[in-house]
Amino acid sequence: MTELRRIRSYVRLEGRLTQAQSDAIARLWPRFGLELGPDRFDFARIFGREAPLFLEIGFGNGEALAQLATNAPERDFVGIEVHRPGVGHLLRLLEGKEITNVRVLCEDAALVLREHVSSASLDGVLLWFPDPWPKKRHHKRRLVHAEFIALLRERMRPGGYLHLATDWQHYAQHMLATVDADGGFVNLAGNGRYPARLVSRPLTKFEQRGLWLGHEVWDMVYRRV
């Protein structure tokens, strides 16, 4: 596989980090946070068990991820988010709800996948409402592109589950065409088609705001072949 391009799909707009979020990061990061080292992650050692492993890229405030982990204690989850207020919010949820099957990274997802996740180690990848970069001149920053999908495929187990969602129609069309064209995934709704919204995906705060504004939402669900 060619080297994944280094264009970042995000800008670190820190926003307001509350005192509670800051305190949560300082106190809970050693418990739930993962730091990048020279080697790839050994998730069985990290979680202390062998379990299906799911990755959420860009978990926002973490409420959907916390709900997923609560609903599926037999699974382990790793969440990646570059904005620290969201990280702090999730850490507080993990402590408050006594959730033990989640670990957190505050890093670039492409870097983590490329250099720190082993091949065929992920049972599922969730990519919900990534930044659509709607201006044409910014499309190169979109996270979903052919090289990134190829990287996901290489890191997922055969039979693994890839679930994307967006409320930008143009980006949905781009996602659909990109993953369908990869050849390593089966679109469970049929090539070129979107399924109805899945009840397995928690309704995020971001999505609720979009629906209130009249936005449609497009889900795409694939299996790794």
Itemize the secondary structure elements and their pairings.
Layout: H1 19-32, H2 43-47, E1 53-57, H3 63-71, E2 76-80, H4 84-96, E3 102-105, H5 109-116, E4 122-128, H6 146-155, E5 156-166, H7 169-182, E6 185-187, H8 205-212, E7 218-224
Parallel strand pairs: 1-2, 1-4, 2-3, 4-5
Antiparallel strand pairs: 5-7, 6-7
Concise account of the structure shown:
The chain is α/β, with parallel strands linked by helices. It has helices at 19-32, 43-47, 63-71, 84-96, 109-116, 146-155, 169-182, 205-212, and strands at 53-57, 76-80, 102-105, 122-128, 156-166, 185-187, 218-224.
Question: What do you see in this structure?
Answer:
- β1, α3 and β2 form a beta-alpha-beta unit.
- By secondary structure, the chain is an alpha/beta fold.
- α1 crosses α4.
- The model has no long low-confidence stretch (mean pLDDT 91).
- It is built from 8 helices and 7 strands, in the order ααβαβαβαβαβαβαβ.
Q: What key attributes describe this structure?
A:
alpha/beta, globular, 225 residues, 36% helix, 19% strand, seven-stranded mixed beta sheet, 7 strands
The secondary-structure class comes to alpha/beta
Number of strands: 7
**Low-confidence runs:** none
Largest β sheet strand count, sense and barrel closure: 7 strands, mixed
Global outline: globular
Strand proportion: 15-25%
- The rounded distance between the terminal residues' Cα atoms is 18 Å
The ordered string of helix (H) and strand (E) elements is HHEHEHEHEHEHEHE
| Rg, nearest Å | 17 Å
Average pLDDT level: 91
Counting H and I runs of at least 4 residues, what is the number of helices? 8
Helix content range of the residues, please? 25-40%
Strand order of the largest sheet: 3-2-1-4-5-7-6
